[in-house]
Specification:
The strands form two sheets. The chain has a six-stranded parallel β-sheet, with helices on both faces. Strands 7-6-8-9-10-12 form a six-stranded mixed β-sheet, sandwiched between helices. Helix content is 42%, strand content 16%. Helix 11 links the parallel strand 8 and strand 9. It is an alpha/beta fold.
């Protein structure tokens, strides 16, 4: 049998409005009244109908998260964090996979599911600013990642240049001086790989060391195989680094495999630092030192941004599409997690 607000109100001996205030966690309810209503809720086993609640507000109760690769552990972990953050606001998350395709990113951003979702969190790879300038969807949009769009949408990122410098500084402090960068991309200036490359170069220059192009190994992708291939090419070229800073953990793990196959020890011969702090790097034969972005912070900021836009639009204080309150550049923190790939085993 379905338990209604009316049933709870009759059991607690209060008005339906009072029960609603408790269920919606309104602040202006006395502790004794809240306890009285909660006791009735527990006794009857009342479960709020979130779908009906969202519909009363003119919403579906669904947020969408679109990422380039669900198979990439970083995006999988980020998706889990977004789902948890959305649940705190009583929203469900619809996951979408763009494959890093500009066409797919345009399709997602232009609201082909506009009647299904209340807001979109998008982590783009190929999307250009002009692709979003004509966006006329009501659903608010939050952008993730380091692309700089100068658009009226909230944007959440970490400082990739500073993070890269932190990683290189750690290697320099260990006495390493020939530090290679694996995972460079030459097709985009503002994407994370270019920012991390900039940080690598800036920290070496600040230390008075060269940053030769010969120690920069580009990759066609960001998976294990890409890291392995880049490491093999670098070694085959005759360039032997004493450390590697990789664009992400998957590239770093692929590189460590090749180093082992070539008879080089990590970290004794070559120290390795990755980026993303995915679970796989914590459980390898040699655990991976890595830059750890605050994925849960990124998720909370993204969800909170959408909810604030939605509430602002409903209350007439802003435009859900981003034209009301000024768009915000929100920074999430990061930290360097030091493990065996640079420090060795204790």
């Amino acid at each position: 049998m379905t338990v209604s607000l009316k049933d709870v109100a009759e059991r607690a001996g209060v008005s339906i409005k009072t029960v609603s205030n408790v269920v919606n966690n309104y602040r202006h309810v006395t502790p004794s009244m809240r306890s009285r209503v909660q006791r009735a809720i527990d006794e009857l086993g009342y479960v709020p109908n979130l779908t009906a609640r969202h519909l009363r507000k003119g919403r579906t109760g669904i947020l969408a998260l679109a990422v380039p690769e669900l198979g990439n552990p970083y995006f999988a972990e980020l998706a889990g964090a977004v789902i948890d953050a959305a649940a705190e606001h009583e929203y469900t998350v619809l996951l979408d996979h763009t494959g890093g395709s500009r066409e797919r990113e345009i399709l997602v951003s232009q609201g082909f599911r506009a009647r299904v979702i209340d807001g979109l969190i998008l982590s783009p790879i190929e999307l250009e600013a002009e692709d979003l300038r004509g966006r006329d969807q009501d659903a608010p949009l939050v952008l993730l990642g380091e692309r700089e769009y100068d658009l009226p949408y909230d944007h959440i990122a970490i400082d990739n240049v500073a993070a890269a410098r932190t990683a290189v500084r750690h290697l320099l402090a260990l006495g390493r001086s020939r530090i290679a960068f694996l995972g460079a991309r030459t097709d985009r200036f503002n994407e994370p790989s270019q920012l991390r490359l900039r940080g690598w170069r800036a920290e070496l220059t600040a230390a008075g060391l060269p940053a030769p192009d010969a120690l920069v190994a580009p990759t066609g992708g960001w998976a294990h195989a890409d890291g392995a291939a880049a490491m093999a090419r670098l070694l085959d070229s005759g360039e032997l680094p004493d450390a590697v800073f990789a664009y992400n953990d998957l590239i770093a793990i692929g590189a460590m495999r090749v180093l082992s196959e070539r008879g080089l020890r990590v970290p004794e011969d070559v120290a390795v630092v990755g980026f993303d702090d995915v679970a796989e790097g914590r459980y390898g034969t040699v655990t991976l030192t890595t830059v750890s972005p605050a994925k849960h912070t990124i998720a909370r900021l993204a969800v909170r941004s959408l909810v604030e836009r939605l509430e602002g639009a409903r209350e007439g204080t802003g435009d859900a599409a981003g034209d009301g309150p000024r768009a915000r550049e929100l920074r999430a923190e990061f930290r360097l997690v030091e493990r065996e790939s640079t420090l060795g085993r204790a």
